[in-house]
Batch of 2 targets.
Target 1
Amino acid sequence: MATPRTLIDSATIGARIDALAGRIAATMPEDFVMVVILNGAFMFAADLSRALARAGRHPTMEFINLKSYGDATESAGQVRVLGTLPERLDGRAVLLVDDILDTGRTMHFARALLAGLGASPVQLCTFLDKPSRRVLDIRAEHVGFEVEDRFVVGYGLDHAKKWRGLPDLAAID
Ligand code: 5GP
Ligand code: MG
């Protein structure tokens, strides 16, 4: 497999996340919960949470482990929960954070899951958006970058469990 080619470098990512955090700080209520979808969103969430702290916001953080992809680059079409879910979130405002909004199945599933735990309102925040791939009608309030329909790795995203630690976002052809 070819070496990944940089699409968005780490400095550009950092600047964009600061801007995102500013907008989130301006639109989320004082008390909110950041719910992070693992594994792919771990790096984005780490940087976003620190940018939020610099913007004066300190949300509670929860993590859910969802899986919709195997080692292939095509969605399995089904989302599963791995591990445990957060406690009830009755009346808590939630910022749901994922790495990439692709077909929309993962975010759709996660939003319903959080609604079932009582979370309200729920805003969606995704590092990347691939609108051309959407199967379900779902949009995120906060988007880092819109990308074309190609498989990306780095900045938390893997291919066959590799490349998550790349500081840049890169494409595999
Ligand atoms: P969806 O459920 O929206 O189809 O897919 C969302 C999940 O699929 C993402 O959270 C991510 O884990 C994975 N995914 C979708 N597109 C890509 C991609 O281009 N690269 C990687 N590494 N993962 C992707
Ligand atoms: Mg993911």
Target 2
Amino acid sequence: MLAGKRIVLGVTGGIAAYKAVEVCRRMVDAGAHVVPVMTKGAEHFVGRTTLSALASEPVQTSLWDEASPIPHTRLGQTADLIVVAPATARLLAAYAAGLSTDLLTNTLLATRAPVVVCPAMHTEMWEHPAVQANIATLRARGVHIVDPESGRLAGGDVGHGRLAAPERIVAAVEGVLASVADMDGWHVVVSAGGTREPIDAVRVIANRSSGKQGYAVAAEAAARGARVTLVSTVDLQAPAGCTVVPVETAAQMQAALESVAPGADVVVMSAAVADFRPVAAAPGKIKKHEGVPQIVLEPTPDILAGLGARKPAGQVLVGFAAETDDLLANAAGKLQRKRLDLIVANDVGAPGVGFQHDTNAVTLLRADASGAAVVAATVALTDKRSIAKAVLDAVVDIRRGLTPPA
Ligand code: CTP
């Protein structure tokens, strides 16, 4: 996985900086071209000469280099991956805040390559809410975090916060490189947000969906090389590389999806579609003095069931099930009725889960060869980008014909 890959290795100022030497050596041995970048703090802990001797190029530390006037953009643009090991609390804060103070932070902001960050610090610092908030921000943006381990820390202390072992860091880098382009050339269609069904000229029947989970799926698919069409009812910042088709009602969403889904490799239906809509919207505003209006509802089409009935061979169709009761049984029923390959079941009654939250917790059910529902993965409460990763990992397995682990 590492052969021929250009990896920027960022080293910041923590006692674990000496382990970066081993990370560097292992990546070079595996055939990577490793470009080391050290912060000023790192130089207190590990010698430039050591790292330069083992890496593929001499260590770089400065933004101001006459031979290469803008080194951070060159480093950022040419990297296949950036790994920061160890990453101090200060680096995490600067990166989360978008602060560019030195060559490493500038490079991190100037790249579109995947980034792996390996924090290392004292237990108290690691557990500090500010550090954990920065970790959550970075994770939500798609940064891969290699969690620290428990063990001996600087000054003889023992606790959680020790840099992950070099072999774990290198395995994480390989895993990210393997997943990075695993949707290259695919067309992925994602629906996001809640539909709005007009009652009159000013009022709608809406729901609590924020669209955040669908946008996270779209961003993750684009990061993995897919061409993404995002059929959306919400006005969020479009993820890079996604074409947005704005819609409002279930009928508009159905029309948009029926035009793009037949040619898609994957369709992820994360939108919350209204099940009922007013038969006819009043053309003007319904006035209070006219009395309590009688709003007659009719069912909307089940868009996903329609896509399932006409699913082209090889397409992976993913639905969501937002439930408050009997989560798995209800989700399994939808998987079968709507002829899906995968359903993302979330218990929207649980704290921090589903609508409007930045976090989610899900169970992924997929259809086995006989069409019965089997658990493919369970993901505990985490940010929506990590949920998106798990969903697309399962999608990739389904396309490759892989079965879930027993
Ligand atoms: N869905 C759809 N069209 C609808 C309703 C739902 O395409 N009219 C899709 C949703 O986008 C979701 C899946 O079907 O991916 C399940 O939606 P959900 O609201 O959980 O299920 P329903 O089929 O509406 O069933 P119920 O209301 O009984 O839970």
